[in-house]
Design a protein that fits this description.
The complex is a heterodimer.
Chain A (H helix, E strand, L loop, with lengths): L1 H8 L18 H28 L5 E3 L2 E4 L10 H8 L12 H36 L1 H14 L4 H14 L1 E2 L2 E2 L2 H25 L4 H9 L4 H39 L5 H9 L10 H24 L10
Antiparallel strand pairs in A: 1-2, 3-4
Helix pairs in contact in A: 1-9, 4-5, 4-7, 4-9, 4-10, 4-11, 6-7, 6-9, 7-9, 9-10, 9-11, 10-11
Chain B lengths: L7 E10 L7 E11 L4 E5 L6 H8 L7 E6 L2 E2 H6 L3 E4 L11 H11 L4 H14 L15 H12 L6 E5 L7 H18 L2 E5 L3 H7 L2 E6 L4 E7 L16 H15 L11 E3 L1
Parallel strand pairs in B: 3-8, 3-9, 6-7, 7-8
Antiparallel strand pairs in B: 1-2, 1-4, 4-5, 9-10, 10-11
Helix pairs in contact in B: 3-4, 3-5, 7-8
Classes of the chains: A mainly alpha, B alpha/beta.
Chain lengths: 316, 273
Amino acid sequence: MPTQTEQIARPRRSVRGAAELRVRRAGMPQRLSGGLFGLAGLAVLALVWELYKSFGPADGVILGGVTVLPRTTDLAMPHLFVMAERLFEPVTGAASASPLWLAVLQGSLFTLGIAAVGWLVGVTVGLALALLMQRFRLAESAILPWIILSQTVPLIAIAPLVRRWGAQIQFGEFTWESWMSVALIASYLAFFPVSIGALRGLGSPDANHVDLMHCYAVGWWKTLWRLRLPASVSYLLPALRLAAVSAVVGSVVAEVSIGLRGGIGRLIVEYAGAAGGDPGKPWAPIFGSILVGLVAAGFVGLISLFLRRFRRGEAA
Amino acid sequence: MTGIVPAVEVQGVTRRFAARKGPGVTALDDVSLTVAPGEFVSLIGPSGCGKSTLLRLVADLDVPTSGSIEVFGKPARQARIDQDYGIAFQQAGLLPWRTVAGNIELPLELHGAGKAARRRRAAELIALVGLSDFAGHYPDQLSGGMQQRVAIARSLAESPSLLLMDEPFGALDEMTRERMQNELVRICAETQAAVVFVTHSIPEAVFLSTRVVVMSPRPGRIRSIVSVGLGEMSGRSEDLREDEGFFRALSQVRELLHGDEAAPTGARGVERR
Ligand SMILES: Nc1ncnc2c1ncn2[C@@H]1O[C@H](COP(=O)(O)OP(=O)(O)OP(=O)(O)O)[C@@H](O)[C@H]1O
Ligand SMILES: [Mg+2]
């Protein structure tokens, strides 16, 4: 995640000099090799896990009374195949219980749905704030500090507040439900990178291009549509990706702090209790949350595929 | 000249940039200049003498501290709103996410031209600047000179009767530069547009211009104006570079530029200011 933050913070659009700059386009082979490296990394991780489990001391590595590496018992570090096997066994001993993977998948979809709503709301709010700040200088100095401050409030603190306020909302048919609180909290995390990234992106066009639009005597909206928005794409995409990941993390954490049933967050807490006799079980919802994160990031990747044209300025 | 509305009429224009501390910079001091329709006028002078500033004022990208600027008899602002001029900056300034054709169509699109008309005009202009094989390419796939040609085509898109160009060939090598100059001469002959052209190159200014405006720095003033008198645009060709009149005008401008206080005696065709 630090790399994504860096991507937002540092504009990658280089100054066009007299020298000819060519885009180093991420072609298919490059993307493929990226995927291979990712898989290789995963394999190495698995290998390290199993090696340490086989050869590490049973009581873990303790330095000066502090445990720096975990114990290698089957309880603390189950074999990977134990985790995998567990996925295909029923959730509980009850005869009617569905397989674990199905329960986790359902939880994942539930959380993914909430995260998606949170992401959409967050992106909308973030973009709106960025547009407002770009349009009015005054708005920037009035709003920006609050946006940054907003992220210093810990999630744990706002979750109960949101829940309590939400419970009081009711008009006509509409009643506020717990999942909406979770989505709201997810959006609270998601809007931040979008507003900051979009603000930078909207301000990124060269003075040259802005002058050109002025020469063409076009107004703010047309300049926005033809110049500022396209120019902001390369800032916006990393922000959207970060927002997607934040929305997922926010949803999981908020599910736990609000106590919403049905999602990954709840499963993590629930299954953690079972760790004593069933060491493979708690890992299932963790894989589930990773899956949700991957799907969310993949979705943004799909968006960026469609917006490829607007990233041409990113010369190496 | 009576009865003909000049393309550009700059009268007693001063532009002072205020500084936070100190007196600020007087970029232009009491500059007056008239450009007739269809005339090619070059601005030449040492770096920082206010050439770009003058051009920006005419384009209404900036407003003068005092004095008045009229373009085709209208205030500069109105002329900008009416799209009376086309402009090309020192950097090509193409939008990287638009193809060559897309970039040239940009002003037409912004001003609501129909799709078919846009296509047709862009194809015309692309042929004019000799980039027909590259219409679908993106700017990052073009050389610097090609990008510059696209920018020039873009400035011509709406057939303006005034062209403002700020060192458009500044980044080009000598060969490309001369070819582009020839092309510009051809384009101007075809479109009959008036041109205000900023350059650092004396041969370029002399080859292209009806008149060369020599400026002096700090505060930016017009030192003198050399009438080149090399004949009509349409009659200009490569041979002109070997012409005797070309060399005479060349040395005149050079003396004016270099011989600061020791100004040359009133040579033919030089108006004193
Ligand atoms: N926006 C600005 N703010 C303050 N000073 C400026 C500004 N623009 C130009 N100047 C000053 O005005 C003077 C003239 O600048 P200008 O860009 O017109 O020079 P120029 O003749 O185009 O030079 P060059 O040939 O190097 O492009 C310079 O001294 C510059 O410092
Ligand atoms: Mg300049």
